Amino acid sequence: MATESARTQAKIDLHTHTNASDGLDTPAELVTNASQRGISVLGVTDHDTMDGLDAASEAAARAGITLVPGVELSTTVDRAEVHILGYFVDSNDSDLQARLSDLAAARVRRVERMIARLHELGYPVDGEAILAQAEEGSIGRPHVARALMEIGAVDSVNDAFERFLKAGRPAYIPRDSFSPEDAVGLLVEYSVIPVLAHPFSTKDIEGTLARLVPAGLKGLETYYAEYSPEQHAQLHVIADGWGLVPTGGSDYHGAGFREGRELGAAPVPQHSWERLSTLYADLANGV
Ligand code: AMP
Ligand code: FE
Ligand code: FE
Ligand code: ZN
């Protein structure tokens, strides 16, 4: 029965997370959920780790889904979040694995400082339980947010960010210095396609592109699920102006993790995926 209608409704989602970083689904669960939602092309983009990719690609092969192996690197510029997605990573590349391990280690140090700060403030989150989750994959603020929920200090992950964890709040710890140019440069070095994630988070899209296109940025996340149709149109014009591929995705982190980020919720057109995959083919052929 999954014939013509399923094909015409086939969905693309190029931005998702698993429990290898701060998502809730295992890689296999993510693929099962994607398959149930009629997704045919799935990008898995965990923060600073490729640890979920082998399991995801095995599950995707069984489900008949095209898996786009990715990562997401986080940087901060003047307190604005500048995140860089990288598409078509080679999860077996041990040099790249080592580079990402350094970033994941910096995440652990940052989370350790957040835990210490929360303890000072009188919130006894279970630091060992948080840090144990770094043994496979990478950790971040959502893990701290869940620990705050567990001790009843907050009602939700969002509440934890609003009261404690976002920039300017008492348990906010800045990241180690790692510029967006560094992130783009790292990806370029490993023949990975760099794309600016959720561009409005940068607070200055044109200024960010003026820095990052010369560094090798190739795409702009245009069809981001939380953005409005007007914003999608605006980003498409900007992508065209800079000659960038307009990608898109939901930034799914698990059911109910955050409103507007449900799996498959981004209206990513077929041409978006075609352009990204053509770019990859050209890169592989040395064009
Ligand atoms: P970190 O990578 O440790 O800086 O944490 C940032 C992560 O937290 C990103 O993956 C976001 O998806 C997530 N995040 C940021 N703000 C919120 C929020 N208000 N509610 C839920 N998740 C959030
Ligand atoms: Fe995240
Ligand atoms: Fe992000
Ligand atoms: Zn993300």
What does this 3D model show about the protein?
This protein is of the alpha/beta class and 287 residues long. The chain has two domains: 4-92 and 181-284, TIM Barrel (Alpha-Beta Barrel); 102-165, DNA polymerase, domain 1 (Orthogonal Bundle). It has eleven helices and seven strands. It has helices at 4-8, 27-36, 53-63, 94-120, 127-132, 141-150, 157-165, 180-189, 205-215, 229-242, 270-284; strands at residues 11-13, 39-47, 66-77, 80-87, 193-196, 219-224, 245-249. The protein has a seven-stranded mixed sheet with strand order 1-2-3-4-5-6-7. Helix 6 (141-150) packs across helix 7. 44% of the residues are buried. Bound molecules: adenosine monophosphate, fe (iii) ion (2 copies) and zinc ion (ZN). Residues 22, 47, 74, 140-142, 157-158, 161, 253, 258 line the site of adenosine monophosphate.
Note the run of SSEs as H and E: HEHEHEEHHHHHEHEHEH
What is the CATH T-level topology of the largest domain?
TIM Barrel
Strand content: 15-25%
Structural class: alpha/beta
Outline of the structure:
This protein has 287 residues and is of the alpha/beta class.
List the helices and strands and how they pair.
Blueprint lengths: L3 H5 L2 E3 L13 H10 L2 E9 L5 H11 L2 E12 L2 E8 L6 H27 L6 H6 L8 H10 L6 H9 L14 H10 L3 E4 L8 H11 L3 E6 L4 H14 L2 E5 L20 H15 L3
Parallel strand pairs: 1-2, 2-3, 5-6, 6-7
Antiparallel strand pairs: 3-4, 4-5
Bound molecules: adenosine monophosphate (AMP), fe (iii) ion (2 copies) and zinc ion (ZN).
Task: Provide keyphrases for this structure.
287 residues, seven-stranded mixed sheet, binds fe (iii) ion, single chain, 16% strand, binds zinc ion, alpha/beta, disordered N terminus, TIM Barrel, binds adenosine monophosphate, globular, 2 domains, DNA polymerase, domain 1
